[in-house]
Amino acid sequence: MALILPVSLIAVIIAPLASGDYGLLNSIQSLSSSDQQKAAVEGLVTRYLPERKDEFVIEIDASLGPSNLDTFELATLADNRLKIVGSSGVAAALGFGSYLKEYGRCQVAWSDAQLNLSHPLPKVPVAQRRTSNDRFSYYSNVCTFGYTYVWWNWTRWQREIDWMAVNGINFPLAFVGQETILQRVFKRLGVSETQLEEWFTGPAFLPWFRMGNLVKWGGPLSLTYLSGQVQLQHQILKRMREFGMLPVLPAFAGHVPAAISQIFPTASITKLSLWSHFDGNYTGTYYLNPTDPLYPKIGHIYIEEYVSEFGTDHFYNIDPWNEMEPAESSVAYLSKASSAIMSSLRSHDPKAIWVLQGWMFSHNADFWTKERAKAFLTGVPKGEMIVLDLAAEYQPMYEKLDSFFGQPFLFCMINNYGGRMGLYGHMDSVSKNVFKARSFPNSTLIGTGLTMEGTGTNYITYELMNEMHVRRAPPDLYEWVGNYTSRRYGVENMNLQHAWTKILLTAYNCSDYGKELVIMRPRWKMRSTAFPAYNTSSLADSIDDVQKALQMSSVTSAASLLLRHDVVDLWREALYVLLCKFYDALQIDVQAGDIDHFRDIGGRFLELLDDLESLVGSHHSYLLGTWVNDAEQLATSEADKYLFRFNALNQVTLWGPNGEITDYAGKQWAGLIKQYYHKRWSMFLAYNEMALSKSIKFNQRMFEEDLFTFVEQPFGLSQQNFSASPKGNTFLLANELYTKYSSFIHDLF
Which of 203, 342, 182 has the alpha carbon at shortest distance from 250? Predict the structure, then answer.
C-alpha cells in the first residue's frame, strides 16, 4: 500500500523535494477559480459513484501545501462522509483516487473500473495528508493522438480526463484541432485551399504530419472534420482547465507546405530527408530555417490565431526535427536555431515555455553529440524549456546530457510503441530510477510522465509509474503487486497474486521489446525480433495460478471486467508464445524437408490463431470492430466514412501505401486476427508446403508480392463488417484453452 502520512509529519519531508528556482516557470498558474475546480471534482465523483456522490465533501484550498506542489488531505467526518481537501482540482481528484485505491480497495483503469466500495465508506482513522514530490505529472505522446485518441468523441475524452485527474496528472498534452489553426495561418500567407488539402494527411497519420515526417497520406481532411475537431478541443481544454491542469498546446515548429517556397522564394527553406521508407510523394517535407526572418512571422501568426481560438496556458510543444536531422550541424547554428524558435514563441506570448520531446537525442544519437545537444539546449534561457526524457525507464538521456545542461526535465516512461500488445515492462527500474534521477548531481528533474505511444496495454506498469509522482521511496514490489491484484479484481486471492508476482520477475523486468510474431508479415528467421525476450516458463506457471483462481466461486462471482481483461491478456500472451514454439518447429521441418510433419504443425498453428481470435473476441478491449466503428461514427459524410475506415485499417496493417512501416501498429484484435493475420500465415504455410512438395527453395520475395496483392492491400480497402460486441464467456474459454493446451505450454515453455 502506498504511504499516506499524518498531517503532523508532512512538513518534515516536503521541503527538500520542491522544484528548482525557475522564476517564469514557477509563476505560471492555473486561471481556474477554486469554485470551478471544486465543481469539476464533484462532477468526477458523480460520474464514478453516482449513487454515493453525497458521501464525499470536496474543498479546494490553494494554501494547503507548498507552492507548485499538489497536496491533498483526507478525513472522515462525524457523519461518516469523507472530506477531501486539495490544493487544486487535480490534487483533490488525486485524493479521491488515492482513497479509492488504499482504503476502498478499488481501481480506476483505462478501459473499466472496479468500484465495489463497501457500505458505509471505509474510515480514515486519522486525518491524512500527501504532497507530490514534483510539480509536474505529464501525460501523452504526440503519437498517442494517432495510435489511441484519433477517433475519440467527447464522451471518451471525458472519461480519459477523469482518469488523468484521479491519477494526479496535471500537465497533459492537448493536441486536437490544430490543423484548423495551420489552415488559417497559411491562408493568411497566400497558400490556397487546394494546396493545403494536398498537405494534410488523414486523421490516423496526423501525429507524423505535425512532426514534419509525412504529408498527404490518408488525406485530405474535410472542413466538417476540421471544425468538429476544433469543437472537441474546446471541450477538452475546458475540462482540463476546470481541474486546474496546465495543458501543453501546439505551436509552429517550422514545417511548411511546399507552396511557401514559391510565395517566399528568398526564404531559407530546406527539403528534409525521406522518412521511414516513404517515397517523395509523402515525405521529404519542407522545413523553414528558424533563423530566417519568415520563421518568427509565421510563429507569431500561429500563436495569435491559436490563442484567439483556444486561449493559452503558456506551455507549447515544439519538435523541430523528430527522427530527422537539421540541415546544419554546427554548434553555432544549433544554438541560434533554438534561440530563434524561443523568440518566435515569445513574440506573442511573453510567458511562453517550450516543451520538447527528447526523443531526437536518443533516436538520432549519432547526430546529437553532447556538444551539439548542449548548444541546442542552452540556446534557450534556463527554465524556459522543459525536456521530456521520453523513454527514461530504459534509455535515460539526462545522465548522458548532464541533466540537460540545466534545463528542467521530466522523467518519462514510454513502454509502448505503436499500441502493440505484448506483456512488457521495466517495473524494477521504474520503482528505483525516478528516485535516482532526483538525486543525480545537479538534477533539474521537476516531474514525471507517461509518454506511451498507445494506451490500453500493460496497465500495471503505468499504475506504478503514476505513483512515482507522490511516493517517497521505492515500494516493495511483491507487496505492491499483492495490493494491486486485490484492488484491481475486488477480491484477495493468493493464486492471482502469485500469477502476477511471477510475471513481475520476467515479462515486467524485461530489457527488450519487439513485435509479436502473430502480427508480423510472415518470413523465416524472426526469432530475434518476434519472440518474447523473457523466460516464458514463468508464464506457464502464471497460467496455472490463474486457472486455479478461476475454479473458485469467490473469484468468479466478484470478478470485474478488469479480471476478464487480464485473463484474456495472459492467455493471449500464452498463445502467442506457443505460436513461437510451433514456428520454430515449422522452420526445422522446412530445413529437414519433412512435409508431413510440416502439414501437421502448420494445421495446429492455424488452429491456434482461430483459438486466439475466439479468446480476444470475448472482451470489448480487443475488438477491431470498435476501432473501425469509432472511425466511421466520427464521419459526417459517406466520403469521410470511407476515408476514415481506410485510415483505421491501414494504420494497424500496412501503415503506408506499400507497407512502409508494416505491422508497427499491429494489434492482436478479434477481426484482425481472423481476416488478416490468419490469411497471411495460411498463405505463407501454403507457399512453403508447395515448395517442399516440389523440392524447391521457398521464394520470399514472390510470396510477399502475392501477399500484398491478394491479402494485405485488399484488406485495407474492404468494406466488411467487424463486430464491435464481445462474444463468449472469457472464463469458460480460458478453461477450454487450459484443457487443450496446458500440456503443450508446460512441455514447450
Answer: 182
N-term to C-term CA, the chain: 33
* CA-based radius of gyration for the chain: 26
E strands of 294-390, at which residues? 315-317, 353-357, 385-389
Given a cut of 50, the residues of the chain with pLDDT beneath it are 1-19
- Could you tell me if 586 and 658 lie in one domain? yes
Helix H or strand E encompassing 129 = strand 128-131
Q: Which amino acid is at 25?
A: L
Q: CA–CA separation, 125 vs 72, rounded Å?
A: 16
Q: Tell me which DSSP letter residue 204 carries.
A: G
pLDDT of 528: 86
pLDDT digits (tens, 9 = 90+) for 250-273: 999 999 999 999 999 999 999 999
**What pLDDT is recorded for position 6?**
45
664, with CB counted inside 10 A (0-12, 13-18, 19+), is buried
Query: Which run of H or E residues covers position 94?
Result: helix 89-102
* Alpha carbon distance 722, 673 (integer Å): 11
3-state class (DSSP) for residue 564:
helix
Residues in the chain, total: 749
Residues facing 76 on adjacent strands: 82
The residue among 102, 131, 160 that closes a domain is 131
User: What CATH number corresponds to the domain at position 700?
Assistant: 1.20.120.670
What is the sign of the dihedral through the CA atoms of 136, 142, 143 and 148?
A: positive
Give the DSSP per-residue string, 450-473. E--SS-SS-HHHHHHHHHTTT-SS
The residues near 414 (Cβ < 8 Å, ≥ 6 apart) are 141, 390, 391, 393, 451, 452, 453
Peptide bond into 441 cis (omega under 30): no
Q: Are residues 197 and 288 in the same domain?
A: yes
d(CA 141, CA 118): 37
Say if strands 71-76 and 107-108 run parallel, antiparallel, or are unpaired. unpaired
How far apart are the C-alpha atoms of 343 and 96, rounded to whole Å?
41
Q: Spell 485-506 as b/e; 16+ CB within 10 A means b.
A: bbbbbbbbbebbbbbbbbbbeb
pLDDT of residue 71: 98
In this structure, what C-alpha cell is assigned to residue 740?
Answer: 487443450
Tell me, yes or no, whether 86 and 140 share the same domain. no
Give pLDDT, residue 20: 55
The answer to whether the predicted template modeling score (pTM) of the entire model surpasses 0.85 is: yes
Phi and psi of 266, rounded to 5°? Answer: -95, -5
Of 727, 739, 747, nearest to 571 (Cα)? 739
Cell reading at 130: 500527501
**What integer pLDDT is reported at residue 511 of this predicted model?**
73
Q: How far is Cα 22 from Cα 408, in angstroms, rounded to an integer?
A: 9
Phi first, then psi, for residue 732 (nearest 5°) are -65, -40
In one letter, which amino acid is 563? L
How many domains does the chain fold into?
A: 3
Strands (E), 582-646: none
* Helical packing angle, 459-467 and 477-489, nearest 10°: 120
DSSP element (H, E) containing 72: strand 71-76
CATH code of residue 69: 3.30.379.10
Which amino acid is it at 60? I
Q: What is the DSSP letter of 69?
A: S
pLDDT value, residue 196: 96
- Number of Cβ within 10 Å of residue 557's Cβ equals 8
Q: Are residues 463 and 527 in the same domain?
A: no
Cα distances from 64 to residues 3, 70, 84, 91, 641, in angstroms, run: 19, 9, 12, 10, 50
Each residue's pLDDT tens digit, 318-338? 999 999 999 999 999 999 999
Query: CA-CA distance, 255 to 117, in Å (whole number)?
Result: 51
